[in-house]
Amino acid sequence: ITQLLLLLLLPPHLPHSPSNSSDAGQPALAAGHPIRHFLLRNLKINGVERFHRPLRPSPVEVWGDETPTPAASLIFLLWFLAAPGGGRADDPPKSVLILSPPWINVFRTDSVTLNCGSPDPSGDVTQWFHNGTVLGIQTPSYSIQEITFNDSGEYRCRTGGSALSDPVRLDVYSDWLLLQATGSVFLEGEPVVLRCHSWKNHPLYKVIFYQDGKALKFFHQNSNFSIPRANQSHSGSYFCSGSMGHERFTSSVFNITVRARPPEILPEVEDENVVSYSLLMHTDVPDEEEEERNHLDYENVPNS
């Protein structure tokens, strides 16, 4: 963005001194502004593709013999600092939103606490967002007692100088039995924990967990079902059943997706800063005809 602003602010040409004109008494042709030429040829779009001016220069846009002025050198320095890795500070780390208990789906009247953590200890004020609306809570812990349907939705937070956290969705239900989960989408190797939750925490026994209709695990007394390291075979539709009193109940289906981890992408080594510094020291930049020759060489419950 800084490079684009510099490009817009620079004049398209630098005037020659009249003494350099080939025809006495005639105004000299304006040489192409060397910094502007450099920015145009080296500006990167989204860090991937280069933006080139037309390779055939117009008669008035040719490189002159001017020595960069102090102001021009300052503009080069600003471009250098704005280039990737050229002194620009990294984006601040994100805050982290954690649910306690960790379930992303709960019963109406359950209690939930949202905690906002931040690696930046400089600030003591926390901002909370619910479905994009700022809440009047400024503490790092936000407790909801007897949650309602209106509390369903997407939550985010931010503490101190940290960036906004990733969204965490909380859904509220009303039924006799609910299969609770710590998430709905996981990466391979992450743990998955499921819980068969009864309305009002009534005693539950003879609990069975199912995946895609097949029984996975039986507990005589209610207990959590854990997958320490998930893989793609654990993707599927889950539900649970259990006995309360003399009746047996079955939860609704909860879908879980386990995705493959993306391959690690090593950062591309950039040499733009070296080029920028070199241009600050040398004015003998190749002309656009040489650029053209080089360029041609390299051609994804109950109801309430």
From TrEMBL:
Keywords: Cell membrane, Disulfide bond, Glycoprotein, IgG-binding protein, Membrane, Signal. One of its GO terms (molecular function) is IgG binding. Residues 1-15 form the signal peptide. It is found in: Cell membrane. Residues 93-171, 188-257 form the Ig-like domain. InterPro entries: Ig-like_dom (IPR007110), Ig-like_dom_sf (IPR036179), Ig-like_fold (IPR013783), Ig_Fc_receptor (IPR050488), Ig_sub (IPR003599), Ig_sub2 (IPR003598). Pfam families: Ig_2. GO terms for cellular component: plasma membrane. Forms a heterooligomeric complex with ITAM-containing signaling subunits FCER1G. Interacts (via transmembrane domain) with signaling subunits; this interaction is a prerequisite for receptor complex expression on the cell surface and intracellular signal transduction. Binds the Fc region of antigen-complexed IgG. This is Ig-like domain-containing protein. It comes from Ornithorhynchus anatinus (Duckbill platypus).
